[in-house]
Amino acid sequence: MTVDLSEALSASAELSMMRDEDPLGHATEAVAGLSAGWQPSPNLQFDAGANVGLNHRSPDVELYAGISRRF
Length: 71
Fold this sequence. Notes:
With 71 residues, this protein is mainly beta.
């Protein structure tokens, strides 16, 4: 789910479950994430977010940030 907080700022929430079908042993990962993006100009955007594992097979916490520039 993504919400526009203003013309330049947006936020997103996400739930994800992934299951592999490895014949030697199945694994399921469950993750919740929050992210935000700020676009101060039409050609520049900053992003940041966090993912949190919801079960023992998922990574505990993943943090990320990014910059995108159109040229």
